[in-house]
Design brief:
Oligomer: heterodimer
Helix content of chain B: over 70%
Number of domains of chain A: 1
Number of strands of chain A: 10
Number of strands of chain B: 0
Shape of chain A: globular
Order of helices and strands of chain B: HHHHHHHHHHH
CATH superfamily of chain A: P-loop containing nucleotide triphosphate hydrolases
Radius of gyration of chain A: 18 Å
CATH class of chain A: Alpha Beta
Helix content of chain A: 25-40%
Strand order of the largest sheet of chain A: 6-7-8-3-9-10
Distance between the termini of chain A: 26 Å
Shape of chain B: globular
Strand content of chain A: 15-25%
Number of helices of chain B: 11
Amino acid sequence: MVSTHYRNVQHDDASSLTVQNLNKVYVRADGVETEAISDLSLSIDAGELVSLVGPSGCGKSTLLRLLAGLESPTRGSLLMGPDIIQGPHADRGLVFQDPNLFPWLTVRRNMQAGLVARGLLRQGKAEVDEFMKLVGLESFADSYPHQLSGGMAQRVGLARALVNHPRVLLLDEPLGALDAFTRMRMQDEVLRLWQNRGTTMLLVTHDIDEAIYMSDRIVLMSPRPGRVDRIINIDLPRPRQRHSSEFFQLRTRILDLLHLGSATEATL
Amino acid sequence: MLGSTNGAQRASRRSHLRPATGLLLSAAILVLCAWQLITLKFALLPLPYFPGPELVLQSVVNDWRLLLDCTWHSLFLLLGGYFGGVVAGLISGICIGWSPRIRYWGMPILKTIGPIPAVAWIPLALVIFDSTWVKAGSIIALAVWFPVTMLTASGISNVRVAYLDVARTLGAGRLYLIFRVAIPAAMPSIFIGLFMGLGTSFLTLIVAEGMGVKSGLGWYIDWARTYSEYARVFAALLIMSAFFSTIMTLLFVIRDYVLVWQKGVIKW
């Protein structure tokens, strides 16, 4: 789909993402500086699904927070379409690794939070119930978050972001706490929504299989300070077969690139 | 038929009280008996300062109109002062907790003025206000204001940043962040402030009623003491205990309702 690592900034669609020469330096209270991201450039087409893979501490989550607008870059620029990203916006949803459900709201009200915040509850109410079914939590609609398991909470967190119809969805290991079966089912659901809605998605994952199964491109990042190490295009036709020989070849290649070729473990 | 059931079932059929309640009740009766014995039978305590339970009960019956009137006046004053203090405390607490700028200027003021016991302001209140009710009410409000402000501010400023981040990526504006995230998240802390405020308001009520009010439980005790009518003093104490514990229970009921989402997370 995309053959070059760097493409000229295309302002054709408002939901593309462009990161140019991004630097993010954290200054601790004692004055010590830590460079989390160093000179990172990356562009993601509108409607593309890109995975970020790399060891812990390579700045993946930081990059998502920057793109969400929750933090501002030290140097460089972040664009959504032609616009500089300044502060958070409902157009760019972020699903956190820890779903951070509001403990004082029931599951249903948690999922409605975005609609309430934007004054769209009336229009979106029916869709909330649909999503509740989609993530299989109708019977927990009136439960409070502390009554949910980690996996259920993650599904609510994902649904809460999806209900909001963001044009860009930033996913920080959104399925990490799910069991293998639920995880595969949710991957398919996310893919279905992605295809139906044309949402631009950036997925941080530790699971190589998930990255291959879902993404158009996989961005391998190198650690401390985080920068793009390599970009791999996944040209497998969709829907993808998890056990095809092409799938395994790609997997072996990526593991080799991560110097984990001999390891049998598919996660980092 | 009774013979065929076991003891526990028989007991529960005879009385709907749980065993624990029954124990408490018998203990209360024992205390009454002991009181009767110590005061009337053996005259161990000096009269008229320690009358027997009969005399106290007699005073309650004889004075019920006056006591009712006094309770009513105390309630009116207490609620007026308490709500005034709570509203002021919530407003100042939310402002101090939310805005770093208000915190910068507000905290020093709070820390220097807050610890002064509210009753120490009585001389000023006497000069500033005309109406006795406003004088006494403002002192109670001041007593309530400090703990409510302190705990509201601390609750608001300690809200998990992640909750605010989630809300912002869902498109929340400032009003949503304050009223739908920060305040609900701070509620447990706010309720601690409300309980502390209620405690000090009882104390302050009794003292403030010495500022020239014409009716009230504190006033009644003062009046009865002047005439060495100690049975009446005890009668007022009895009413006060019922009165204050009812209000305290009401606040517990409100808390259980508002903080229902904490049930199962925190031991109450």
